[in-house]
Protein backbone atom coordinates (compact mmCIF):
# COMPACT_ATOMS: atom_id res chain seq x y z
CA UNK A 1 0.00 0.00 0.00
CA UNK A 2 1.43 3.41 -1.01
CA UNK A 3 1.68 5.78 1.93
CA UNK A 4 -0.07 9.13 1.55
CA UNK A 5 0.96 11.05 4.69
CA UNK A 6 -0.37 14.42 3.52
CA UNK A 7 -3.92 13.12 3.29
CA UNK A 8 -3.68 11.18 6.57
CA UNK A 9 -2.63 14.42 8.27
CA UNK A 10 -5.59 16.20 6.70
CA UNK A 11 -7.95 13.60 8.18
CA UNK A 12 -6.32 13.79 11.62
CA UNK A 13 -6.47 17.60 11.50
CA UNK A 14 -10.17 17.39 10.67
CA UNK A 15 -10.75 15.20 13.72
CA UNK A 16 -9.04 17.77 15.93
CA UNK A 17 -11.80 20.20 14.95
CA UNK A 18 -14.87 17.94 14.71
CA UNK A 19 -15.84 14.31 15.34
CA UNK A 20 -16.65 13.58 11.68
CA UNK A 21 -14.20 13.84 8.78
CA UNK A 22 -16.07 13.81 5.47
CA UNK A 23 -13.70 12.45 2.79
CA UNK A 24 -15.01 13.20 -0.68
CA UNK A 25 -13.56 12.83 -4.13
CA UNK A 26 -14.33 11.37 -7.53
CA UNK A 27 -14.75 7.65 -8.02
CA UNK A 28 -11.47 5.66 -8.03
CA UNK A 29 -9.39 8.51 -6.58
CA UNK A 30 -8.32 6.34 -3.64
CA UNK A 31 -10.79 7.09 -0.83
CA UNK A 32 -11.25 3.47 0.22
CA UNK A 33 -7.53 2.69 0.15
CA UNK A 34 -6.78 5.81 2.16
CA UNK A 35 -9.43 4.89 4.73
CA UNK A 36 -8.01 1.38 5.03
CA UNK A 37 -4.52 2.79 5.56
CA UNK A 38 -5.64 4.23 8.90
CA UNK A 39 -4.89 0.75 10.25
CA UNK A 40 -7.04 -2.29 10.99
CA UNK A 41 -5.98 -2.20 14.64
CA UNK A 42 -7.82 1.10 15.21
CA UNK A 43 -10.61 1.06 12.60
CA UNK A 44 -14.06 -0.48 12.37
CA UNK A 45 -14.57 -0.51 8.60
CA UNK A 46 -18.13 -0.46 7.24
CA UNK A 47 -18.69 -0.94 3.50
CA UNK A 48 -22.05 0.71 2.92
CA UNK A 49 -22.33 -0.82 -0.55
CA UNK A 50 -23.23 -4.12 1.17
CA UNK A 51 -26.99 -4.62 1.68
CA UNK A 52 -26.45 -6.10 5.16
CA UNK A 53 -25.06 -2.79 6.46
CA UNK A 54 -28.50 -1.18 6.45
CA UNK A 55 -29.62 -3.72 9.02
CA UNK A 56 -26.37 -3.34 11.02
CA UNK A 57 -26.95 0.39 11.59
CA UNK A 58 -30.74 0.29 11.89
CA UNK A 59 -30.36 1.11 15.61
CA UNK A 60 -27.38 3.51 15.60
CA UNK A 61 -26.80 3.63 19.39
CA UNK A 62 -26.59 -0.16 19.52
CA UNK A 63 -24.20 -0.19 16.57
CA UNK A 64 -21.87 2.45 18.00
CA UNK A 65 -21.79 0.81 21.43
CA UNK A 66 -20.57 -2.37 19.73
CA UNK A 67 -17.59 -0.61 18.15
CA UNK A 68 -14.53 -1.68 20.09
CA UNK A 69 -12.07 0.50 18.15
CA UNK A 70 -11.61 4.29 18.29
CA UNK A 71 -12.31 4.98 14.58
CA UNK A 72 -15.39 4.07 12.54
CA UNK A 73 -15.19 4.32 8.75
CA UNK A 74 -18.40 4.45 6.71
CA UNK A 75 -17.29 3.91 3.11
CA UNK A 76 -19.76 5.20 0.47
CA UNK A 77 -22.15 6.24 3.24
CA UNK A 78 -24.66 7.83 0.86
CA UNK A 79 -25.84 4.28 0.09
CA UNK A 80 -27.58 4.14 3.49
CA UNK A 81 -31.25 5.04 3.83
CA UNK A 82 -30.66 7.79 6.42
CA UNK A 83 -26.90 8.45 6.59
CA UNK A 84 -27.22 11.85 8.27
CA UNK A 85 -29.08 10.36 11.23
CA UNK A 86 -26.42 7.67 11.70
CA UNK A 87 -23.61 10.23 11.66
CA UNK A 88 -25.44 12.68 13.90
CA UNK A 89 -26.05 10.07 16.61
CA UNK A 90 -22.43 8.91 16.40
CA UNK A 91 -21.09 12.45 16.75
CA UNK A 92 -23.46 13.57 19.52
CA UNK A 93 -23.75 10.45 21.67
CA UNK A 94 -20.29 8.89 21.33
CA UNK A 95 -17.79 11.73 21.73
CA UNK A 96 -14.82 9.38 22.13
CA UNK A 97 -15.28 7.96 18.63
CA UNK A 98 -13.73 9.42 15.50
CA UNK A 99 -15.82 8.96 12.37
CA UNK A 100 -14.66 8.98 8.77
CA UNK A 101 -17.38 9.02 6.11
CA UNK A 102 -16.51 8.75 2.43
CA UNK A 103 -18.51 9.65 -0.65
CA UNK A 104 -18.13 10.99 -4.15
CA UNK A 105 -19.83 14.28 -3.40
CA UNK A 106 -20.44 16.94 -0.81
CA UNK A 107 -23.07 16.29 1.83
CA UNK A 108 -25.52 18.63 0.15
CA UNK A 109 -25.66 16.48 -2.98
CA UNK A 110 -28.28 14.04 -1.76
CA UNK A 111 -31.75 14.65 -0.45
CA UNK A 112 -30.90 11.98 2.10
CA UNK A 113 -28.82 14.60 3.92
CA UNK A 114 -31.56 16.89 5.11
CA UNK A 115 -29.26 17.57 8.07
CA UNK A 116 -25.84 18.60 6.75
CA UNK A 117 -24.26 18.10 10.19
CA UNK A 118 -23.22 21.70 10.69
CA UNK A 119 -20.54 21.97 13.37
CA UNK A 120 -20.05 18.20 13.54
CA UNK A 121 -17.91 17.61 10.45
CA UNK A 122 -14.92 18.90 8.52
CA UNK A 123 -14.48 18.34 4.81
CA UNK A 124 -11.45 16.75 3.15
CA UNK A 125 -11.51 16.78 -0.67
CA UNK A 126 -9.22 14.02 -1.96
CA UNK A 127 -7.84 15.11 -5.33
CA UNK A 128 -6.10 12.90 -7.89
CA UNK A 129 -2.46 12.16 -7.07
CA UNK A 130 -0.59 15.40 -6.41
CA UNK A 131 2.68 16.71 -7.79
CA UNK A 132 4.48 16.12 -4.49
CA UNK A 133 3.12 12.56 -4.21
CA UNK A 134 4.75 11.36 -7.43
CA UNK A 135 7.93 10.06 -5.74
CA UNK A 136 5.81 7.84 -3.45
CA UNK A 137 3.99 6.42 -6.48
CA UNK A 138 7.30 6.08 -8.34
CA UNK A 139 5.98 7.53 -11.58
CA UNK A 140 7.39 10.39 -13.69
CA UNK A 141 5.58 13.65 -14.24
CA UNK A 142 4.86 12.95 -17.91
CA UNK A 143 3.08 9.73 -16.98
CA UNK A 144 0.99 11.64 -14.43
CA UNK A 145 -0.08 14.16 -17.07
CA UNK A 146 -0.79 11.47 -19.67
CA UNK A 147 -2.50 8.80 -17.57
CA UNK A 148 -4.04 11.17 -15.02
CA UNK A 149 -4.01 10.97 -11.25
CA UNK A 150 -6.51 8.23 -10.44
CA UNK A 151 -4.23 5.55 -8.95
CA UNK A 152 -5.43 2.61 -11.11
CA UNK A 153 -4.82 4.62 -14.29
CA UNK A 154 -1.64 6.29 -13.05
CA UNK A 155 0.03 3.00 -12.16
CA UNK A 156 -1.03 1.16 -15.32
CA UNK A 157 1.76 0.17 -17.70
CA UNK A 158 -0.14 1.67 -20.64
CA UNK A 159 -3.00 4.10 -21.05
CA UNK A 160 -6.11 2.02 -21.73
CA UNK A 161 -9.03 3.94 -23.31
CA UNK A 162 -11.48 1.36 -21.90
CA UNK A 163 -10.70 2.53 -18.35
CA UNK A 164 -11.77 6.10 -19.10
CA UNK A 165 -14.91 5.10 -20.98
CA UNK A 166 -15.92 2.65 -18.26
CA UNK A 167 -15.29 5.30 -15.60
CA UNK A 168 -17.55 7.80 -17.38
CA UNK A 169 -20.41 5.29 -17.58
CA UNK A 170 -19.95 4.24 -13.94
CA UNK A 171 -19.79 7.86 -12.81
CA UNK A 172 -23.18 8.54 -14.34
CA UNK A 173 -24.83 5.36 -13.04
CA UNK A 174 -23.40 5.30 -9.51
CA UNK A 175 -23.09 9.00 -8.73
CA UNK A 176 -25.03 11.30 -11.04
CA UNK A 177 -28.12 9.17 -11.54
CA UNK A 178 -28.41 8.06 -7.92
CA UNK A 179 -27.75 11.46 -6.37
CA UNK A 180 -29.52 13.76 -8.81
CA UNK A 181 -31.99 11.59 -10.68
CA UNK A 182 -30.75 12.51 -14.16
CA UNK A 183 -31.96 9.92 -16.66
CA UNK A 184 -30.33 10.73 -19.99
CA UNK A 185 -26.82 9.23 -20.06
CA UNK A 186 -26.13 10.38 -23.61
CA UNK A 187 -27.09 13.98 -22.95
CA UNK A 188 -25.09 14.14 -19.73
CA UNK A 189 -21.99 12.56 -21.26
CA UNK A 190 -22.22 14.83 -24.30
CA UNK A 191 -21.97 17.83 -21.99
CA UNK A 192 -19.28 16.30 -19.79
CA UNK A 193 -17.10 15.33 -22.74
CA UNK A 194 -17.54 18.79 -24.25
CA UNK A 195 -16.33 20.30 -20.96
CA UNK A 196 -13.39 17.89 -20.88
CA UNK A 197 -12.37 19.06 -24.35
CA UNK A 198 -12.76 22.72 -23.35
CA UNK A 199 -11.12 22.28 -19.94
CA UNK A 200 -9.10 25.26 -18.78
CA UNK A 201 -11.04 27.71 -20.93
CA UNK A 202 -13.74 30.23 -20.13
CA UNK A 203 -17.23 28.82 -19.78
CA UNK A 204 -20.16 30.57 -21.43
CA UNK A 205 -23.38 28.70 -20.68
CA UNK A 206 -25.41 29.80 -23.72
CA UNK A 207 -22.58 28.90 -26.09
CA UNK A 208 -22.19 25.55 -24.33
CA UNK A 209 -25.89 24.79 -24.56
CA UNK A 210 -25.89 25.55 -28.28
CA UNK A 211 -22.78 23.46 -28.93
CA UNK A 212 -24.16 20.42 -27.12
CA UNK A 213 -27.76 20.84 -28.25
CA UNK A 214 -29.41 21.00 -24.83
CA UNK A 215 -31.23 23.75 -22.97
CA UNK A 216 -29.55 26.34 -20.80
CA UNK A 217 -31.37 25.18 -17.61
CA UNK A 218 -30.18 21.62 -18.29
CA UNK A 219 -26.60 22.82 -18.67
CA UNK A 220 -26.86 24.74 -15.41
CA UNK A 221 -28.26 21.78 -13.47
CA UNK A 222 -25.63 19.43 -14.89
CA UNK A 223 -22.85 21.90 -14.06
CA UNK A 224 -24.02 22.03 -10.44
CA UNK A 225 -23.93 18.23 -10.29
CA UNK A 226 -20.43 18.13 -11.76
CA UNK A 227 -19.20 20.69 -9.24
CA UNK A 228 -20.80 18.92 -6.28
CA UNK A 229 -19.23 15.60 -7.28
CA UNK A 230 -15.80 17.25 -7.79
CA UNK A 231 -15.70 16.29 -11.47
CA UNK A 232 -15.48 19.97 -12.45
CA UNK A 233 -13.99 23.04 -10.82
CA UNK A 234 -15.28 26.46 -11.78
CA UNK A 235 -12.52 29.02 -11.17
CA UNK A 236 -14.27 32.34 -10.87
CA UNK A 237 -12.74 35.67 -11.83
CA UNK A 238 -11.01 37.93 -9.34
CA UNK A 239 -12.01 41.56 -9.62
CA UNK A 240 -11.86 44.78 -7.68
CA UNK A 241 -14.47 46.82 -9.49
CA UNK A 242 -12.47 47.84 -12.53
CA UNK A 243 -14.60 48.57 -15.58
CA UNK A 244 -12.49 46.44 -17.92
CA UNK A 245 -12.24 43.34 -15.72
CA UNK A 246 -14.11 40.11 -16.41
CA UNK A 247 -16.35 39.70 -13.37
CA UNK A 248 -18.75 36.82 -14.11
CA UNK A 249 -17.45 34.32 -16.62
CA UNK A 250 -15.67 31.40 -14.88
CA UNK A 251 -13.03 29.09 -16.24
CA UNK A 252 -13.96 25.40 -16.13
CA UNK A 253 -11.35 22.78 -15.21
CA UNK A 254 -12.06 19.07 -15.41
CA UNK A 255 -10.92 16.95 -12.49
CA UNK A 256 -8.11 14.98 -14.11
CA UNK A 257 -5.49 15.39 -16.82
CA UNK A 258 -5.89 11.81 -18.04
CA UNK A 259 -9.54 12.39 -18.90
CA UNK A 260 -8.78 15.74 -20.54
CA UNK A 261 -6.22 14.08 -22.80
CA UNK A 262 -8.59 11.17 -23.47
CA UNK A 263 -11.45 13.46 -24.52
CA UNK A 264 -9.15 15.53 -26.73
CA UNK A 265 -7.54 12.54 -28.40
CA UNK A 266 -4.08 13.48 -27.15
CA UNK A 267 -2.39 10.14 -27.72
CA UNK A 268 0.53 10.46 -27.45
CA UNK A 269 1.11 13.81 -25.81
CA UNK A 270 2.87 16.46 -27.86
CA UNK A 271 4.98 19.30 -26.43
CA UNK A 272 2.16 21.83 -26.90
CA UNK A 273 -0.15 19.65 -24.77
CA UNK A 274 2.03 19.79 -21.68
CA UNK A 275 1.39 23.41 -20.69
CA UNK A 276 -2.42 23.14 -20.40
CA UNK A 277 -2.16 19.86 -18.47
CA UNK A 278 0.48 21.31 -16.15
CA UNK A 279 -1.93 24.16 -15.33
CA UNK A 280 -4.49 21.57 -14.19
CA UNK A 281 -1.91 19.93 -11.94
CA UNK A 282 -1.03 23.26 -10.30
CA UNK A 283 -4.72 23.94 -9.67
CA UNK A 284 -5.12 20.56 -7.95
CA UNK A 285 -2.11 21.35 -5.77
CA UNK A 286 -3.69 24.65 -4.70
CA UNK A 287 -7.04 22.97 -4.01
CA UNK A 288 -5.37 20.38 -1.79
CA UNK A 289 -3.00 22.65 0.11
CA UNK A 290 -5.20 25.77 0.37
CA UNK A 291 -8.63 24.17 0.87
CA UNK A 292 -10.18 27.20 2.59
CA UNK A 293 -8.99 29.76 0.05
CA UNK A 294 -10.93 30.19 -3.19
CA UNK A 295 -8.66 30.01 -6.23
CA UNK A 296 -9.48 32.76 -8.75
CA UNK A 297 -8.17 33.86 -12.11
CA UNK A 298 -7.91 37.37 -13.54
CA UNK A 299 -8.70 38.60 -17.01
CA UNK A 300 -9.62 41.91 -18.59
CA UNK A 301 -11.59 42.65 -21.72
CA UNK A 302 -8.40 43.24 -23.69
CA UNK A 303 -7.36 39.64 -23.07
CA UNK A 304 -4.68 40.10 -20.40
CA UNK A 305 -4.89 37.10 -18.08
CA UNK A 306 -3.24 35.73 -14.93
CA UNK A 307 -3.71 31.99 -14.45
CA UNK A 308 -4.50 31.96 -10.72
CA UNK A 309 -4.95 34.59 -8.05
CA UNK A 310 -5.11 34.02 -4.29
CA UNK A 311 -6.06 36.77 -1.87
CA UNK A 312 -3.64 37.00 1.04
CA UNK A 313 -5.14 39.95 2.90
CA UNK A 314 -7.35 42.89 2.02
CA UNK A 315 -5.01 44.70 -0.37
CA UNK A 316 -2.53 41.89 -1.12
CA UNK A 317 -3.05 39.24 -3.75
CA UNK A 318 -0.62 36.64 -4.97
CA UNK A 319 -0.42 36.00 -8.71
CA UNK A 320 0.48 32.54 -10.03
CA UNK A 321 1.46 31.90 -13.63
CA UNK A 322 1.91 28.30 -14.86
CA UNK A 323 4.43 27.44 -17.56
CA UNK A 324 5.84 24.11 -18.62
CA UNK A 325 8.86 26.00 -19.98
CA UNK A 326 9.74 29.15 -18.01
CA UNK A 327 11.42 30.61 -21.10
CA UNK A 328 7.93 30.96 -22.62
CA UNK A 329 6.80 33.35 -19.87
CA UNK A 330 5.51 36.69 -21.11
CA UNK A 331 5.43 39.30 -18.35
CA UNK A 332 2.94 41.66 -20.02
CA UNK A 333 -0.28 40.29 -18.49
CA UNK A 334 1.21 40.09 -15.01
CA UNK A 335 2.60 43.60 -15.34
CA UNK A 336 -0.80 44.88 -16.40
CA UNK A 337 -2.43 43.10 -13.43
CA UNK A 338 0.07 44.66 -11.02
CA UNK A 339 -0.86 48.08 -12.33
CA UNK A 340 -4.23 47.55 -10.60
CA UNK A 341 -3.08 45.36 -7.70
CA UNK A 342 0.51 46.30 -6.82
CA UNK A 343 0.72 44.44 -3.50
CA UNK A 344 1.43 40.71 -3.39
CA UNK A 345 3.86 38.06 -4.51
CA UNK A 346 4.45 36.83 -8.06
CA UNK A 347 5.07 33.15 -8.84
CA UNK A 348 6.03 31.41 -12.05
CA UNK A 349 5.30 27.73 -11.38
CA UNK A 350 7.19 25.29 -13.57
CA UNK A 351 8.39 21.69 -13.22
CA UNK A 352 11.97 22.90 -13.75
CA UNK A 353 11.83 25.34 -10.83
CA UNK A 354 13.81 23.22 -8.36
CA UNK A 355 15.67 24.77 -6.69
CA UNK A 356 13.52 27.87 -6.60
CA UNK A 357 15.03 31.21 -7.52
CA UNK A 358 14.02 34.85 -8.00
CA UNK A 359 14.19 36.66 -11.31
CA UNK A 360 13.59 40.25 -12.29
CA UNK A 361 11.32 40.94 -15.27
CA UNK A 362 11.38 44.70 -15.82
CA UNK A 363 10.03 46.08 -12.56
CA UNK A 364 8.52 42.73 -11.49
CA UNK A 365 10.10 40.40 -8.97
CA UNK A 366 9.04 36.83 -9.78
CA UNK A 367 9.68 33.66 -7.80
CA UNK A 368 10.32 30.73 -10.16
CA UNK A 369 9.49 27.46 -8.43
CA UNK A 370 7.66 24.13 -8.44
CA UNK A 371 4.24 23.79 -6.76
CA UNK A 372 5.98 22.57 -3.60
CA UNK A 373 7.43 26.08 -3.08
CA UNK A 374 4.08 27.86 -3.12
CA UNK A 375 2.99 29.26 0.26
CA UNK A 376 0.22 27.21 1.82
CA UNK A 377 -0.94 29.52 4.58
CA UNK A 378 -3.75 31.76 3.38
CA UNK A 379 -6.68 33.16 5.32
CA UNK A 380 -10.19 32.50 4.09
CA UNK A 381 -10.62 34.96 1.25
CA UNK A 382 -12.96 37.91 1.58
CA UNK A 383 -15.85 38.48 -0.78
CA UNK A 384 -13.63 40.36 -3.22
CA UNK A 385 -13.56 38.61 -6.54
Strand tally is 14
Helicity range: 25-40%
Strand content: 15-25%
Strand order of the largest sheet: 9-10-11-12-14-13
Oligomer: single chain
Instruction: Report on the biggest sheet.
Output: 6 strands, mixed
User: What separation lies between the terminal Cα atoms?
Assistant: 41 Å
Mean pLDDT: 93
Residue runs with pLDDT of under 50 for 5 or more positions: 380-385
Name the helix and strand elements from N-terminus to C-terminus, one letter apiece: HEHEHHEHEEHHHHHEHHEEHHEEEHEEE
Structural class: alpha/beta
Keywords for this structure?
385 residues; alpha/beta; six-stranded mixed beta sheet; five-stranded parallel beta sheet; 15 helices; globular; disordered C terminus
Kindly describe this structure.
The protein is α/β, with parallel strands linked by helices. The chain contains 15 helices and 14 strands. The strands form 3 sheets. A 6-stranded mixed sheet has the order 9-10-11-12-14-13. Strands 2-3-4-1-5 form a 5-stranded parallel sheet, with helices on both faces. Helix 11 (205-212) crosses helix 12. The longest helix has 20 residues, at 161-180.
Write a compact overview of the structure shown.
By secondary structure, the chain is an alpha/beta fold.
Topology of helices and strands:
Elements: H1 5-17, E1 20-24, H2 31-36, E2 43-47, H3 52-56, H4 60-65, E3 71-75, H5 83-93, E4 98-103, E5 121-125, H6 134-137, H7 141-147, H8 151-154, H9 161-180, H10 185-197, E6 201-202, H11 205-212, H12 216-228, E7 232-235, E8 251-254, H13 257-264, H14 271-289, E9 296-299, E10 305-313, E11 316-322, H15 332-340, E12 346-349, E13 357-361, E14 364-369
Amino acid sequence: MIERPFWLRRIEDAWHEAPIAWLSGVRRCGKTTLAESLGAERVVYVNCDLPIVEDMVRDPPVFFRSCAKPVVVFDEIHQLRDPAQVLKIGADSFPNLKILATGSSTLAASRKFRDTLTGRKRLVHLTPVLWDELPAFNVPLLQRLYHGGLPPALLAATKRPAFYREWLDSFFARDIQRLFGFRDLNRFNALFEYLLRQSGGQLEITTTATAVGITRPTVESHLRALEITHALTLVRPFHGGGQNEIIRQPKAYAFDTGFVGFARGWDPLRPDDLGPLWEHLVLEHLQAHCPDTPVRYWRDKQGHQVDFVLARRRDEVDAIECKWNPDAFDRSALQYFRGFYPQGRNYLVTPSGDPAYNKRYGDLDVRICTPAELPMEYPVASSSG
